[in-house]
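Hey team,

Filing this mostly as a record. A colleague (T.K.) asked me to run one chain through the structure pipeline before their review meeting, and I want the input and output archived in the tracker in case anyone asks later how it was produced. No errors, nothing strange. Just documentation.

Input sequence:
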Amino acid sequence: MERDCFQFVRKCHQCQIHSDLIHSPPLELHPMSAPWPFVTWGIDVIGPIDPKASNGHRFILVAIDYFTKWVEAVTFKSVTKKAVVDFIHSNIICRFGIPKIIITDNAMNLNSHLMKEVCEQFKIVHRHSTPYRPKANGAVEAANKNIKKILRKMVQGSRQWHEKLPFALMGYRTTVRTSVGATPYLLVYGTEAVIPAEVEIPSLRTIVEA
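Output structure:
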């Protein structure tokens, strides 16, 4: 089965085009301490994206939990300071509780007075990664790379990429992350999601349920 998979990927034109191009040698990992789910979040922005979506959106605001690797992402025309704060309120605090640490780069929209007020209000520690070393916020950089790769495969130059984002997130959340050896969905909800493959080729649990 493994050999057949390798041969399939080699024959797949899209797999060859969108495969990772690793230019630097592997380095020793320096894992950050995230003792429980949703204690540490990293936030970053993808964009500007060309072509922009049909609704005018050009940016994706991405947040990833360092423990479960769960990803939240929303598209915007422009990532304003208020948009960042609203995103933190609705997609992190109200959904997963108050984090202990939020890590961003030094971009102005991620380091506004509104952001400072939110962190003070909820007693969140706001840490920064240097723009000259984005690996310091490596979990988000890896998530960004994977989301962009999934979108490229799904959209193929179409301006409807904003509609495909939820499906890209689903694919990311239901794929085993090698760093934790499990899917983010399993670590968050305690069970695996029913994915489209199980509908096309019924799995044991979907057969039993039926």
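Quick notes for T.K.: The CA atoms of residues 72 and 125 lie 20 Å apart. The chain is about 40% helix and 15% strand.
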